[in-house]
Amino acid sequence: MCDKPIAPVLWSYSDVASHWDRLILRSHAIEGGKRALYQEGSVTAMMEPQALIARHAADGRLADGTLMFCGTLAAHGGVRPTSAFALELEDPVLGRKIAHSYRVRTLPMLG
Fold first, then answer.
1. Residues 6+ apart with CB under 8 A from 48
2. CB proximity list for 9: less than 8 A, separation 6 or greater
3. Per-residue confidence in pLDDT tens, the chain, 111 aa
4. Is residue 73 included in any domain, yes or no?
5. Range of the domain at 25
6. How many helices (DSSP H) and strands (DSSP E) are in the chain?
7. Cβ of 87: how many Cβ atoms within 10 Å?
8. Dihedral angle at the C-alpha atoms of 84, 97, 73, 76, nearest 10 degrees?
9. Which pLDDT belongs to residue 94?
10. CA 84 to CA 98: how far, in whole Å?
11. Among 1, 15, 40, 66, whose CB has the most other CB atoms within 10 angstroms?
12. How many domains are contained in the chain?
């Protein structure tokens, strides 16, 4: 079980819909105090947003303020635990980036 951390900034889908296929997702695992590329690729590797929206909204529109998780990319070197992650979403068309990082706290196994 794990939380789904999100960055403190969100972009409206309408702001990126016309160039959705140009957005790039990237994450780094922090290993031994150094950033190691963990995931990188275009959002086109995931399901199209309009297809996801159509599955959950009869009229093809989500309510204002709705946040939808759309999947993930394959991990370089395989899925592995680490003490911290850094993630980013790059919009090369509008020349901007959303970046966020977080530390991981492993809970003890009970039972």
1. none
2. 98
3. 567 777 788 888 889 999 999 999 999 999 888 999 999 999 988 888 888 888 888 888 888 888 877 778 999 999 988 889 999 999 999 999 999 999 988 888 897
4. yes
5. 13-103
6. 2, 4
7. 18
8. -60
9. 97
10. 17
11. 40
12. 1
In a domain, 87, yes or no: yes
In a domain, 40, yes or no: yes
pLDDT computed for residue 1 by the predictor: 56
- For Cα atoms 68, 70, 71, give the angle at the middle one, nearest 5 degrees: 140
Q: Does 93 reside within a domain?
A: yes
Structure tokens at 79: 């899925």
Question: How far is the C-alpha of 70 from the C-alpha of 30, rounded, in Å?
Answer: 24
Residues 6+ apart with CB under 8 A from 69: 4
Give me the pLDDT at residue 84, please: 93
